[in-house]
Amino acid sequence: MAERKWTKDRLRSLRDHSDFFCPVCNSEVELRIGNIVSAHFAHKKISGCTEQHEAESSYHLQGKLDLYDWLKHNKAVRNVKLEPYLPKIKQRPDLLAETENEIVAIEFQCSTTDSKILVKRTENYQSLQMKPLWLLGAKRLTRVGMTSFSITPFQWHLTNFTDHGEPPQLYCYCSQTKAFIVLDSIIPFSPRLIFATHQKIPINSITFKELINIKINRRTLYDNWFAHVKRFRLQLKSFQSKESSLLNITLYKEKQTPITFLPSHAFLPLKTAYLIETASYIWQGWLLLFLDKYSIGKEILFQDIYYFFKNRVKEKAIKIRSLYQTNIHYSYVIREYLNKLCLLSILKMSSERKYMKISHIRWETNLEQIIHHDKQLMEQVNKIFR
Question: Where do the Competence protein CoiA-like N-terminal domain residues begin and end (predicted)?
Answer without folding.
Answer: 5-50
